Amino acid sequence: MKSQKEQITYPNLPLAIYREIAAHLRQIKDINTELIPQKSQQFDYAQSQVDSLHIHYRVNFDSSEKQQVKAILDYYAQRYGAYERNVLDS
Q: Where does residue 45 rank: exposed (0-12), middle (13-18), buried (19+ CB within 10 A)?
């Protein structure tokens, strides 16, 4: 089965909140998540420990499930600021 992969980035979002988002997304059928560590070699307390969140799902993902993903991401955007969402090569 073909799958789709997206990169979600919230600037300066704490590790705990990235983990919370990942946990919420994994409650949706056929969603897998992966936290991508920060690549910076220098520690900066103000910088997130996570570079981005990758979400994996099947290509023929149901529209109601897509809406659930968007609702979760938008919920956190309202509290922590806008996010970037990019489709990655699978």
A: exposed
| Percent of the chain residues topping a pLDDT of 90 | 56
DSSP letter assigned to residue 39: -
Number of domains in the chain: 1
What is d(CA 1, CA 62) in angstroms, rounded to the nearest whole number? 14
DSSP secondary structure string, 41-90?
SS--TTS-SEEEEEEEEETT--HHHHHHHHHHHHHHHHHH---EEEEE--
Instruction: Please compute the mean of the pLDDT values over residues 28-57 and round it to a whole number.
Output: 82
CATH number at residue 82: 3.30.70
Containing structural domain, residue 61: 3-88
